């Protein structure tokens, strides 16, 4: 919590004021409290403790200056999108995770303690991710032990700086573990490498020639081996993977259909919509609104 104080005084001339009119000094509330105590002592000769300061008014101000209420349905959709990426072990989750942060900043618990509120949000998020990982195939023993470890780390955090990287670290850890346990044992190492490359590059135009070069095969041999092992042509696999990602973005973010089409490197919105309907039987907007 900070208080912003304008750097002006009654003794300053107009030129000086103009020179600092856009400058502000930001003080932490704890520092401001100490200044207030020092000034009180200088004026009255009485010593006070920080606990003697009535922070009720400041708390009321903080509670009244709330962000606009989030659309609960959008929050739920964003949550489901993120949890689905855990269930499928989708390593290319960062775009959806980043966009979802704009929909909800966490559990809306009113508290004067920002650290406690952040801990609550991470603990709730960890619990949801842990259960999604189990649904994705991670063993309950491993999932619960991992979740408990991250929850304990959150509780042990002393500052917001300690807590800040924990949520992303936890999410990434669970996604990677689910991805590993869902790796198809029937795929050769080379074809699995092709599959992983496609999943990690859905925002790009993916060419069969590039995938073949990645594993040291000719394009002809790679495309035949890929279809033999996966049951899909490279082109169809890429198409289905991009539509699955589009479904997550439609449900978990506020991005427009145009933006999602561009983010997944479809040449036009109309082409994206046509492929989406071909795969799902619905237009992107019908899917988003259902």
UniProtKB/TrEMBL annotation:
Name the chain's protein.
Answer: Transcriptional regulator, AraC family
User: In its keyword annotation, does this UniProt entry include Transcription?
Assistant: yes
Output the SUPFAM superfamilies linked to this UniProt entry: Homeodomain-like
A GO molecular-function annotation: sequence-specific DNA binding
Per the database record, which ranges form the HTH araC/xylS-type domain?
A: 192-290
Which terms are listed as keywords in the entry? DNA-binding, Transcription, Transcription regulation
The record, for PANTHER family, names: ARAC-FAMILY TRANSCRIPTIONAL REGULATOR (PTHR43280), HTH-TYPE TRANSCRIPTIONAL REGULATOR EXSA (PTHR43280:SF2)
Supply the source organism's classification.
Answer: unclassified sequences, metagenomes, organismal metagenomes
Q: Which Pfam families match?
A: HTH_18
Species name: human gut metagenome
Report the coiled-coil segments.
none
């Amino acid at each position: 919590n900070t208080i912003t104080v304008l750097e002006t005084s009654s003794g300053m001339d107009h030129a000086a004021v103009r020179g600092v009119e856009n400058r502000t000094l930001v003080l932490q509330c704890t520092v401001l409290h100490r200044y207030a105590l020092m000034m009180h002592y200088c004026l009255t000769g009485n010593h006070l403790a920080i606990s003697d300061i009535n922070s009720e008014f400041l708390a009321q101000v903080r509670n009244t200056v709330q962000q606009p209420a989030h659309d609960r349905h959008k929050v739920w959709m964003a949550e489901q999108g993120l949890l689905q990426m855990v269930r499928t072990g989708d390593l290319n989750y960062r775009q959806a995770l980043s966009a979802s942060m704009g929909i909800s900043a966490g559990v809306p618990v009113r508290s004067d303690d920002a650290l406690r509120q952040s801990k609550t949000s991470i603990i709730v998020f960890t619990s949801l991710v842990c259960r999604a990982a189990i649904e994705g195939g991670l063993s309950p023993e491993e999932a619960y032990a991992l979740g408990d470890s991250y929850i304990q780390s959150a509780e042990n955090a002393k500052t917001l700086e300690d807590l800040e990287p924990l949520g992303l670290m936890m999410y990434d850890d669970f996604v990677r573990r689910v991805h590993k346990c869902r790796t198809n044992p029937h795929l050769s190492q080379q074809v699995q490498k092709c599959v992983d490359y496609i999943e990690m590059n859905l925002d790009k135009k993916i060419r069969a020639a590039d995938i073949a070069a990645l594993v040291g095969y000719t394009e002809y041999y790679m495309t035949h081996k890929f279809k033999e092992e996966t049951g899909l042509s490279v082109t169809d696999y890429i198409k289905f993977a991009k539509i699955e990602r589009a479904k997550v973005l439609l449900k978990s973010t506020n991005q427009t259909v145009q933006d999602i089409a561009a983010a997944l490197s479809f040449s036009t919105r109309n082409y994206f919509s046509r492929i989406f309907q071909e795969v799902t039987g619905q237009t992107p907007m019908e899917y988003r609104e259902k």
